[in-house]
Amino acid sequence: MLIRYGTDANGRLVKKAAVYTKSEHSISNSKIDPDALQIIVRLRDAGYTAYIVGGAVRDLLIGNTPKDFDIVTDATPSKIKRIFRNSRIIGRRFRLVHVVFGEKIFEVSTFRSNADGSVGNDFGTIEEDVLRRDFTLNALYYDTIQEQVIDYVGGIRDIKKHIIRPVIPMERIFIEDPVRMLRAIKYSATTKAKMPFRLRRKIRTSAGLLSQISPSRLTEELLKIINSKYCAEIVKEALNTDLYIYIQPSATSMIYESKDFEKAYLESMKKLGELNKNEPDARLGKKLVFLIEDFIKSITDWKKETEGKYSAAELYTKTWAECRNFILPMNPVRKELEYAIKTVMINLGVQLRVKKESKKTEEKKAPKEESQKSAKKHKNHKKNNSKKKQKKDEEKKSE
């Protein structure tokens, strides 16, 4: 292990970070997206420093496959934009750059200062940037050129010990960004790391801060849970830390009221986890089925409903309204929620009709179909003429 040194306020030499070499960590550049490696090479060639940072480094160290490769650099957003023509600057206050390669998007951020806490927007150094990171296991920087992991906060030690430890002081971490509580329970479930008693207690006592978060951001966080193969474990942790009531209040109330519903709901989350493991690219509507299925089953006697006075369309309209309220504040794409509701209702015996194509679609298809019919007719006509000619030639020969 190497040591990275710096100087303190008095100019004295002090240890700043532990640097783990290739022989000491388990990361291979072959496991990193080639386009992410190319971004770092181009930033280095332009005279800037650049690292893979955060969750990708954590996942590579514990043997998981990262979903995203975030990059941090000392280049400002405008300078990054000049280097990469295939990029765009996003965000009004906290500006960063998205570098686009086909369908892949890589987030490139600039080192930030911690002068205004962990949510300030001034540019800074790597030593300041690391102190803005939420937990030690996310505060690691990987140098793809030297193939070294740079650790300022003991993140590798905590990963080995399976402990989640905050970087930001406990009195500020969740006040500055309440969503960090959801990240903590997610990391606990996905990395099998334990939350110390003090951290768990802080999350419970701070849970109400999530009520300040916008529905769009809560939807984003819930979608991350729904898309995880560890969704059952994350939901259990969210329930145990009193967080789930702020992201799925109706489901939480029903879980508190009924042990049977709780058992069924958590079993559905396990099935969703299996789906995410086996079909990670399954459409969202297919995943939402597991979120609403037990609720739909509980709202009425479906056997009586299918034999009763209401039409399938009326039943769907009523169920749609109930489900929309049930999943609030989550606001998924409407067509995906419709797909999920119809799937569950069909499974319960409701004869829902498949939506017919619009007249415009039919009109577009009509010329093509007519053209195909005409071509087939012409082909058959040529074939018949050819047979007639062949028959006449044979008759002439026989004469």
List the helices and strands and how they pair.
Elements (H helix, E strand, L loop, with lengths): L1 E6 L5 E8 L13 H12 L4 E4 L1 H8 L8 E3 L3 H7 L3 E4 L5 E6 L2 E7 L15 H4 L10 E4 L4 E4 L3 H7 L8 H7 L3 H12 L5 H10 L8 H12 L4 H10 L3 H4 L1 H9 L1 H20 L5 H15 L3 H6 L4 H15 L7 H14 L11 H40 L1
Parallel strand pairs: 4-7
Antiparallel strand pairs: 1-2, 2-9, 3-4, 3-8, 5-6, 6-7, 8-9
Q: Average pLDDT, to the nearest integer?
A: 88
Q: Radius of gyration, rounded?
A: 29 Å
Total number of strands: 9
**Class from secondary-structure proportions:** alpha+beta
Multimeric state: single chain
**Strand order, largest beta sheet:** 1-2-9-8-3-4-7-6-5
Q: Report on the biggest sheet.
A: 9 strands, mixed
Q: What is the percentage of strand-forming residues?
A: 5-15%
Shape: elongated
CA-to-CA gap between the ends?
Answer: 102 Å
pLDDT under 50 segments (min length 5)? Answer: 356-371, 373-379, 395-399
How helix-rich are the residues, as a percent range?
Answer: 40-55%
